[in-house]
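Sequence in, structure out. Go.
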Amino acid sequence: MFSEQAYQAARHRAAAIERVDRGLIVVSGQDRASYLQGLLTNDIARLTAGEGCYAAYLTPQGRMIADALVYELGDVILMAVPLPHTASVLAKLDQLVFGEDVRLGDVTATFSRYAVIGPATAAVLHTVLGEGSTDLESLPEHGNRRVRFGGHPSVLTRVDEAGEPGFDLYVERSQREALQEAIRAAGVPFVDAETADVIRIEAGIPKFDQDMDQDTIPLEAGIEGRAISFSKGCYVGQEVIVRVVHRGHGRVARKLAGLALEGPDLPIAGAAVTADGRQVGRVTSSAHSPALGRPIALAYLHRDALEAGTVVSVNGARAVVTTLPFVEPAKVFESARRLPAETEGS
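Output:
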């Protein structure tokens, strides 16, 4: 159920989310980076210890098998992939190991993953983790750091897929309850799944199995700026991506866009988007936006209907095509080493 308190905390102070939507694959061995370099869309080979990136795993036809958060930890690479596809991604990767020094493992059950998001995130984590969490503001996008929680090794990664800037903290499963207690003791509320989805949709961030699936080309979802390196060597599906970008000037038949809707009703996923009596798209996600005071949706639209300001219809309700994101996330973290007064004790 949507929580106004948790939403406001995430937007203006800090809030926590238990992240159960991704499975975890560990890739070890000396050839781990070069092996993944030929399979994923981003430049894995350039990553050094403490760095990471967002990437996609494609079929030879350029369609998505999954998206992934990829972190080079120094001795292994950690991949966070959509949970329902963990086993299939692991099996596909395993089939492609030949003579390389590469070992793969599913460590989903080993760790619990929590996000802390919002402008006061750095201060919250300093309270929860102590001195090991200093200078978090300097951690680059998708950067990672080894930390300790409760005396146990943990991993902290910088992320933005929740819709607000923040960090994911990976702790041993045995430390799950202790971490929850420490976060609450810092005065930070937990965000339920519905509220987290509102924040994500306002930020215009597509989610796999919701706004992207195994029929999606990354260019259609608009994730190429985050997920694809156009300067790296060959990877599976690259030929299709290059053909669309260079020969087709990046034009695809459909693309993910935002819709600002009139009226109180939220369209369900799959609802038809029409214009001048013909279908021009379909809705993938929707939410009532507290920031805008109206329903909003993510939808795939035909390229002729993508221009911002175009008027369309969803279930008979008027809607206007809107440039994403609907709501700009915070640009910086709170640098103070204590929580803002309005967070304490909330």
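Check: The radius of gyration is 21 Å. The chain has two domains: 4-199, 207-322.
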